[in-house]
Structure formats: C-alpha cells, structure tokens
Design brief:
Layout: H1 3-26, H2 33-38, H3 47-71, H4 82-97, H5 103-117, H6 122-137
Length: 138
C-alpha cells in the first residue's frame, strides 16, 4: 500500500467515524447514510471499504455495542461519549468483520482518532477496550 493509498484509507476511516457519530446522535441507521456523508470527498479507490464498513456497522450494530458494553469497565454505550462510541464501533467493525485489515492497524487508527477527537483520556480508554476485545474474541 503506497502512502497515498494509506492516506486515503485514513481519511475514509475518519469520515466514516463522523458518519457513525451522526447516525448514533440522530438514531438514523438508514442504509447508505454513511456513504452519503462521505461522497462529497474524493475517496476514489475506497468505495468498497466504505460500503463494507457501513454494512458491517448496520448489520451488526447490536452485537458491536454489546461487545463495547461487555469490555468497557464501568462505562456502557448509553453513558459513553458519542465520539468515543463511534470510534469504538468503527474499530470493532473492522476487527470483527473485515479480514483484510490487520488488527493492529484498526487499533492504531482508532487510538489516533481518539487523540484527535476525544478527551485527554480517550485514547487510553479506547486502546484498553479494543485490547480486551481482541484478546477475548480473536
């Protein structure tokens, strides 16, 4: 994967996190909503990734949220920061349902998103939950 492709994937991941954030806040999980949010950006070559990620999220949202509830300590999805929740949902969808993405990449990218969009403690919180999910689910 060349640098440009890596940057496109990171941008696609960031935009889909924002789409998941919006879906959660609006409680609108309509198919195509995530892609609609991302289509105004030039993400050519990432369409299949975006479609697969959105499908994984929409098809498995309850299971993903259940894993977050199971592996987060003292924090349930209903009390969690909406940004942290969207980052966790995205990463768990990649880890559980997208075999072509290395687990380490999903975790690294989630931690980086948390550093950019979350609170000071968000990256450690997200890293801890994802670490527990990976250890017990894979």
């Amino acid at each position: 994967m060349n640098v440009n492709r890596f940057e496109k994937r990171s941008e696609a991941r960031e935009l889909m996190m924002k789409a998941m954030y919006q879906m959660n806040l609006l409680k609108d999980f309509s198919p195509g909503r995530g892609r609609k949010i991302t289509e105004e950006h030039d993400l050519s070559g990432e369409e299949s990734y975006l479609d697969a990620l959105e499908d994984a999220f929409l098809d498995n949202r309850d299971e993903v949220n259940g894993l977050i509830d199971q592996y987060s300590i003292r924090w349930k999805t209903s009390r969690m920061s909406p940004v942290d929740l969207a980052i966790l949902q995205l990463a768990i969808c990649e880890i559980k349902y997208m075999d072509d993405i290395p687990v380490k990449v999903s975790i690294y990218e989630a931690v980086e998103l948390a550093k950019t969009y979350g609170t000071d403690k968000a990256s450690k919180f997200i890293n801890g939950i994802l670490g527990r999910v990976v250890r017990e689910q894979l």
